[in-house]
């Protein structure tokens, strides 16, 4: 499988990552020495930045760490959000009940000590009868941040098997979580 290249110059390549391939699988598809500068979950599609040199990899990683990168995602969530836009600010850490998941913690909770800040902005682009189509702008880049935050709000991403609720409705034909890295 060839990756669709969206942009390329001497230091980077921007590709359209298909859903269903994890970062390790992407690495096997890249030329020798090319490395992803960030991660996308296996079932998340969209824009992925690839560094073509070790120096550019370090530069891009520093940009992400210093929160200089603006990311926009599109997703479909279950239900209707009360507020049409907002910001979710919590702490995130590994769930003690399921090590595959991240859990939301609130400041002041005894278990919150040592957990990391996570901030996600959202805006409803279109409301459907059973779903809402959102634009998401994570301000931090924590593992599963968007998925955990939307589940915490009571609006899991459509098709998300890990963070979705029991008996969650899934649109017909959807085989993965409806989350797409739209721009970077």
Average per-residue pLDDT, rounded, comes to 94
SSE pattern, N- to C-terminal: EEHEEHEEEEEHE
Low-pLDDT windows of residues: none
Radius of gyration: 17 Å
Largest β-sheet summary: 10 strands, mixed
Determine the structural class based on helices, strands and strand pairing.
alpha+beta
Characteristic key phrases:
single chain, 184 residues, alpha+beta, ten-stranded mixed sheet, 15% helix, 36% strand, globular
Characterization of the model:
By secondary structure, the chain is of the alpha+beta class. 15% of the residues lie in helices and 36% in strands. It is built from three helices and ten strands, in the order ββαββαβββββαβ. Strands 1, 2, 3, 4, 5, 6, 7, 8, 9 and 10 form a ten-stranded mixed β-sheet that branches.
Per-chain topology:
Layout: E1 4-8, E2 12-17, H1 23-29, E3 35-36, E4 45-51, H2 54-65, E5 72-78, E6 85-94, E7 102-105, E8 116-127, E9 131-138, H3 145-152, E10 179-183
Summarize this structure briefly.
With 184 residues, this protein is of the alpha+beta class. 15% of the residues lie in helices and 36% in strands.
């Amino acid at each position: 499988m060839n990756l669709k290249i969206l942009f390329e110059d001497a230091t980077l390549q921007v590709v359209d990552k298909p859903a269903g391939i994890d970062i390790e699988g992407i690495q096997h598809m890249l030329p020798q020495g090319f490395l992803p500068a960030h991660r996308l979950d296996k079932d998340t599609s969209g824009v992925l930045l690839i560094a073509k040199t070790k120096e550019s990899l370090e530069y891009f990683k520093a940009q992400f760490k210093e929160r200089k990168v603006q990311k926009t995602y599109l997703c479909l969530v279950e239900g209707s959000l009360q507020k049409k836009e907002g910001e979710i600010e919590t702490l995130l850490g590994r769930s003690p009940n399921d090590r595959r998941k991240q859990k939301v913690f609130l400041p002041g909770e005894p278990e919150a000590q040592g957990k990391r800040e996570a901030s996600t902005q959202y805006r409803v682009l279109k409301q459907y009868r059973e779903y809402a189509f959102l634009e998401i702008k994570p301000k931090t880049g924590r593992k599963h941040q968007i998925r955990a935050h939307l589940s915490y709000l009571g609006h899991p991403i459509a098709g998300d098997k890990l963070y979705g609720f029991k008996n969650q409705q899934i649109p017909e034909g959807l085989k993965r979580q409806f989350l797409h890295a739209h721009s970077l």
